[in-house]
Fold:
Amino acid sequence: MTFNLYVTIMLQISVKECLIMINLEILRFELNFLKQVIKAVLGDKVSAEINEAITALIISFLFPNAYDSLSFSYIQTIEQYINQIQHEIEPDKYQLLMNNIPTIRIFIEKVKFEIPKC
Structure:
């Protein structure tokens, strides 16, 4: 392997690692935003419940053998509270919420897709 090829490969790996870290940061920002909205609209208890559900789904996603019968229940909990928020706040504020949590929404869809495989 030539030095130039080695450097190119290492740069590609570094770029991929940076993209993964950026995506994780985005997920964290979105989760914090969602928790704050839920806390303001539905209270601390529901915010903690959403946090627990998303955390469990992230662990299950990272370790697919960790999917269990509660995984789908966690998804239903998250969707139920997001749906409840839709009825509690003005439509433009709800749209703002949905526009600011695309990574969470995509993540939930990916988990839904994977659950039947396990």
